[in-house]
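dumping this here so i dont lose it
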């Protein structure tokens, strides 16, 4: 960046402006000890240049705090001794403001592409205005507990509400003014009866009419304003709660989802929306209505202390009845919510597994389970309705007394001379008394709802308060991945298991090796791939990638650096192009075509009606199993990973599709490390190294030819799978095979892979 030149001019011609903007954000984050990786940035569709909001989301996802805003020069130059501030330029690039000098009227900017030792450049207001669009990005490191890790409870909700201080202040002020205005209609009624009707005063009526019109206009405008403000506050709270809950769901480790039924997880997660509706609806409305008490109660006591005490006592009795019935209501409401969650879980599992339900004719079985769940829901819903009905019945006499009986008490007091009120004042008291009773009754009923919300909060907390991967996803090293792997005395046990899934596993392979993993079911093959992907990090020993322990590497960086293809790969709703670029929206159609060609998917994609824009979704019938696997491989190789993991990627394919995929894998494996898990040894013959696993132990690791000579387990598995090829083998080879099988004690059996 040259002295007294427009910031960014030097690089705008040679470097992509978006790259400069991202480097500016990385430099500002580095000042706070936060390391960002430009490869983790995901651009928003439709944005030519990353907006401050998009950049802020990127920083927050990596464990920082960021906020975008628009400033004028007068405010910018007053920032003074602040950390580096990212200034957004018109051409899509950015600069780093590292200081200001109000006396000289300049700000000091540093080039994002140069080191911190580069001296900053002074830029005045006129020159900055030529390139700066007014947007800035402020970045800092979290020093308190991250929202992603904060416990999901009522205290968290309270803190969330208090963050809307400005909006709440305006809503409270408008509510207080409206509460004051609500006194006047009752006073006007009193004047109409006592002065206009009794004395037939037309002049008073005209005056009161004008006052009513003006008062009504003010009340309409204030009511609209308060409702608008309340909607803004509740909508912001709604958005914050929904975003937090979903982000927490994404941050939960895969092990949690494997231990829990998906239907149960979704049922408990949906409980958070009951809490959200309560916080942004009934609670907010009741709290606003309570302001009427502070304004109206003094007026009622001034008009008639006796009637005011009667009104207050009746409302208090209503609250007492509700409080007494709270334990029973809470118990019934909790059972109702739980039964509804179980029914929703049954619904989800039936729809998700509808193919199995249809093919195995399980309709009657699922129908019986649904009927049982529905019967439970109906039973507890009926119990909850009856409990609520009892509460309403007990409260109704007191409520009727406030609305109707109090006027009889007032008339009695007037007739006996115990009160100097007139008829108009009595009507005014009735109007104001109803306004006092309504928020008190709402408050009492609010206590009843709190119990349901507490149950919902506990159910949601059973999911959202589980330990997350947030720290592992936002901290750790981000080395350049080459692909060398080393296992040293690695032991691992699954949570709740009494046996080890891996026992003292030791082996090393250099970068660029094609490694096969074989063994009986339950031998630990897939466990090794899980450790490599960071799914489980509670292993003992050392698992190193390029000499760095896997637990020290940033988990997000690690997973984005890998290409993973599973036996069953999920396809998202969208086009073929969208599925290949899933998670990497910045890739172009040229990158998609290159990945599809490498995976052998180009030939069938081009035959489709819309090519790469052909619409597919999970369970779609317009693609075969082999085509699905090749799309998954294309999705894995589009980012050109240096390490790929294939876990039974070809076990569900027909021989022709398997041969095609294996041929593609040999081409894909050049120049990168490949870890291939397969029960079919024929697909691993060309691997550089093959690791033989048995009961969690590494039995041997060598090439195919060497293992046939020295590894009994491998030779047994190979002969079992090659009988159709070796049908003409000599009797000696057959005897050798039989002896090997007897030494193993049993043939490989089915079972769940650990």
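and the seq i came up w/
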């Amino acid at each position: 960046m040259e002295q007294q030149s427009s910031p960014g001019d030097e690089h705008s011609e040679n470097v992509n402006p978006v790259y400069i903007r991202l480097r500016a954000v990385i430099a500002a984050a580095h000042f706070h000890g936060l390391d960002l990786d430009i490869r983790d940035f995901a651009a928003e569709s439709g944005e030519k240049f990353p907006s401050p909001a998009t950049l802020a989301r990127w920083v927050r996802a990596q464990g920082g705090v960021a906020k975008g805003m628009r400033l004028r020069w007068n405010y910018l130059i007053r920032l003074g001794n602040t950390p580096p501030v990212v200034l957004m330029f018109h051409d899509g690039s950015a600069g780093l403001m590292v200081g200001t000098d109000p006396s000289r009227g300049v700000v000091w900017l540093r080039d994002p592409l140069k080191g911190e030792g580069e001296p900053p450049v002074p830029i005045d207001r006129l020159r900055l205005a030529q390139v700066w669009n007014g947007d800035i990005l402020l970045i800092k490191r979290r020093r308190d507990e991250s929202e992603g890790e904060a416990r999901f409870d009522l205290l968290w909700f309270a803190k969330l509400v208090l963050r809307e201080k400005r909006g709440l202040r305006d809503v409270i002020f408008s509510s207080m003014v409206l509460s004051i205005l609500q006194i006047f209609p009752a006073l006007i009624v009193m004047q109409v009866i006592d002065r206009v009707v009794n004395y037939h005063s037309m002049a008073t009526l005209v005056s009161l009419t004008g006052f009513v019109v003006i008062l009504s206009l003010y009340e309409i405008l204030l009511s609209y304003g308060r409702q608008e403000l309340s909607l803004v506050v509740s909508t912001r709270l709604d958005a914050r709660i929904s975003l937090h809950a979903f982000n927490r769901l994404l941050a939960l480790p895969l092990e949690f989802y494997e231990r829990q039924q998906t239907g149960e997880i979704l049922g408990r997660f949906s409980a958070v929306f009951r809490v959200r509706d309560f916080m942004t609806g009934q609670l907010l409305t009741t709290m606003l209505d309570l302001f009427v008490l502070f304004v109206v109660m003094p007026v009622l006591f001034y008009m008639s202390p006796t009637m005011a005490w009667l009104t207050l006592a009746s409302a208090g009795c209503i609250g007492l009845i509700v409080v007494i019935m709270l334990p029973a209501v809470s118990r019934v409401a909790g059972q109702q919510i739980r039964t509804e969650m179980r029914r929703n879980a049954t619904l989800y599992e039936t729809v998700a597994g509808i193919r199995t339900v249809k093919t195995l004719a399980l309709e009657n079985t699922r129908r019986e389970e649904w009927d049982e769940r529905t019967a439970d829901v109906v039973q507890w819903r009926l119990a909850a309705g009856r409990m609520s009905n009892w509460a309403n019945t007990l409260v109704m006499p007191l409520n009727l007394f406030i609305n109707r009986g109090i006027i009889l008490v007032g008339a009695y007091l007037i007739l006996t001379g115990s009160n100097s009120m007139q008829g108009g004042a009595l009507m005014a008291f009735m109007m104001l008394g109803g306004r006092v009773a309504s928020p008190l009754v709402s408050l009492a009923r609010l206590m009843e709802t709190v119990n349901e919300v507490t149950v919902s909060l506990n159910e949601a907390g059973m999911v959202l308060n589980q330990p997350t991967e947030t720290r592992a996803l936002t901290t750790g090293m981000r080395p350049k991945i080459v692909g060398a792997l080393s296992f040293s005395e690695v032991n691992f046990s699954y949570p709740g298991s009494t046996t080890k899934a891996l026992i003292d596993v030791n082996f090393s392979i250099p970068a660029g090796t094609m490694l096969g993993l074989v063994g009986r079911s339950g031998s630990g093959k897939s466990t090794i791939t899980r450790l490599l992907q960071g799914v489980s990090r509670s292993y003992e020993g050392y698992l190193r990638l390029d000499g760095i322990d896997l637990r020290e590497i940033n988990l997000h960086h690690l997973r984005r650096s890998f290409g993973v293809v599973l036996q069953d790969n999920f396809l998202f709703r969208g086009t073929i192009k969208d599925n290949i670029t899933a998670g990497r929206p910045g890739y172009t159609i040229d990158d998609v075509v290159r990945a599809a060609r490498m995976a052998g998917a180009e030939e069938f994609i081009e035959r489709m009606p819309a090519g790469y824009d052909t619409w597919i979704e999970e369970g779609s019938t317009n693609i075969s199993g082999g085509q699905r696997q090749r799309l998954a491989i294309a999705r894995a190789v589009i980012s050109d990973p240096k390490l790929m993991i294939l876990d039974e990627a070809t076990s569900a394919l027909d021989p022709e599709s398997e041969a095609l995929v294996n041929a593609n894998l040999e081409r894909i494996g050049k120049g990168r490390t490949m870890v291939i898990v397969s029960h079919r040894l024929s697909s691993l013959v060309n691997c550089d190294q093959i690791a033989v696993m048995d009961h969690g132990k590494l039995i041997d690791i060598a090439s195919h030819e060497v293992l046939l000579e020295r590894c009994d387990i491998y030779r047994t598995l190979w002969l079992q799978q090659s009988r159709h090829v070796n049908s003409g083998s000599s009797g000696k080879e057959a005897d050798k095979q039989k002896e090997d099988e007897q030494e193993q004690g049993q043939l490989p059996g089915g079972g769940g892979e650990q």
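The longest strand covers residues 132-141.
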